[in-house]
């Protein structure tokens, strides 16, 4: 009986003091912002020292980065009287085509969108890189000498005198970059955008050398016009051959009339392709040799370095404070 009463008193005593202990624990766990500020203020010299180290390191890092220049060309889609082959006549001759039993199809080919996608394609890049031999300037360049206007190659990668690739890489890569590897590097430097409001197209290339950047933009514009011209010429010639064979096989006057008009349209396509150098894009603002660097933003790098140093040093002080507070 006595033991039972004693246990009951102990339980009552435990219940009575338990809230106080809980409240005390809560008070110990509360974070006093004033105390945290005092911790940061007492460690201000540590923060200043670490921030200064990061600032100096970011300055050296920013100065070690070479300048990157960007050249851009503003292009307008070239207007054309021909509507893109057989589909171009669907509006003008749709009724006659139905009478003659010929299906012209519908819709106008968006040559601008097609040209942009070809510019981005692997096949176009492979031919472009091989034609203009841009691999050394794409993969092996490390800087540009402004005074002599010469590109500086990384001679651990490429020897410009002998035009030999000597870089050491792990398989499946080879000393000479593959087109897949080169395309990845090129995509990081190349940009093409079409303004949805006015249809204008902006092509840009970044490089260590502003001369090289301009040259590559010029080559890109020339080559895409040549590729689109060659595609349309080949298509028009094949279409003319097909239409002429159909003319020879039919005796229906209406159908022959339609086919002759289609031949005429394909002849217009050939004429436009022969007389126009700027076949799919007209140059509005040609690429220029940039006098101002595009990147890096060295001031921004230094500011970011200082912020990182300040944040990391503050976190260090707070972690040290909480470790000493709760051993």
Automatic annotation (TrEMBL):
Keywords carried by this UniProt record:
Cell membrane, Membrane, Transmembrane, Transmembrane helix
Topology relative to the membrane: Multi-pass membrane protein
- Domain of life here? Bacteria
Q: Which residues cross the membrane?
A: 45-63, 299-323
Ranges where the Polysaccharide chain length determinant N-terminal domain occurs: 29-131
Q: Which residue positions does the secretion signal occupy? A: none
Q: Where does this protein chiefly localize?
A: membrane
What is the organism field in this record?
A: Paraglaciecola mesophila
Protein name as catalogued: Wzz/FepE/Etk N-terminal domain-containing protein
Location in the cell: Cell membrane
């Amino acid at each position: 009986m006595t033991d039972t009463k004693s246990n009951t008193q102990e339980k009552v005593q435990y219940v009575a003091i338990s809230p106080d202990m809980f409240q005390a624990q809560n008070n110990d766990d509360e974070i006093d912002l004033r105390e945290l500020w005092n911790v940061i203020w007492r460690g201000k010299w540590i923060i200043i020292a670490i921030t200064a180290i990061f600032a100096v390191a970011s300055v050296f890092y920013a100065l070690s980065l070479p300048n990157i220049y960007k050249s851009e060309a503003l292009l307008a889609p070239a207007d054309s009287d021909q509507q893109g082959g057989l589909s171009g006549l669907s509006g003008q001759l749709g009724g006659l085509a139905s009478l003659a039993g010929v299906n012209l199809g519908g819709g106008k080919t968006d040559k601008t969108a097609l040209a942009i996608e070809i510019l981005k394609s692997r096949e176009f890049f492979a031919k472009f890189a091989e034609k203009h031999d841009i691999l050394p300037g794409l993969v092996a360049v490390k800087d540009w000498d402004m005074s002599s206007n010469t590109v500086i190659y990384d001679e651990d990668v490429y020897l410009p005198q002998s035009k030999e690739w000597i870089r050491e890489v792990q398989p499946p890569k080879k000393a000479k970059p593959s087109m897949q590897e080169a395309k990845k590097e090129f995509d990081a430097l190349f940009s093409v955008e079409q303004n949805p409001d006015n249809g204008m197209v902006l092509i840009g290339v970044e490089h260590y050398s502003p001369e090289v950047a301009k040259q590559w933009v010029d080559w890109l514009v020339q080559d895409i016009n040549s590729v689109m011209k060659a595609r349309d010429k080949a298509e028009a010639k094949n279409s003319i051959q097909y239409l002429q064979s159909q003319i020879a096989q039919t005796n229906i006057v209406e159908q022959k009339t339609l086919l002759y008009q289609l031949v005429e349209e394909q002849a217009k396509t050939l004429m436009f392709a022969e007389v126009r150098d700027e076949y799919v894009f007209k140059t509005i603002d040609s690429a220029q040799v940039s006098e101002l660097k595009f990147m890096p933003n060295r001031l921004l790098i230094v500011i970011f370095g200082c912020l990182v140093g300040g944040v990391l040093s503050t976190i260090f002080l707070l972690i040290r404070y909480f470790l000493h507070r709760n051993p």
